Amino acid sequence: MTQTEADFLRLAKEALDTEAQAVSALKTRLDSQFVRAV
Hints:
By secondary structure, this protein is an all-alpha fold. Helix content is 92%, strand content 0%.
């Protein structure tokens, strides 16, 4: 694997981790709003 490939994979993994955290935070917010609405 070249250095460029390694850098790309590391960046892609960081982006996926960030996206997973954002989705998790959004889900938590939606869940709390849903509970209030019921």
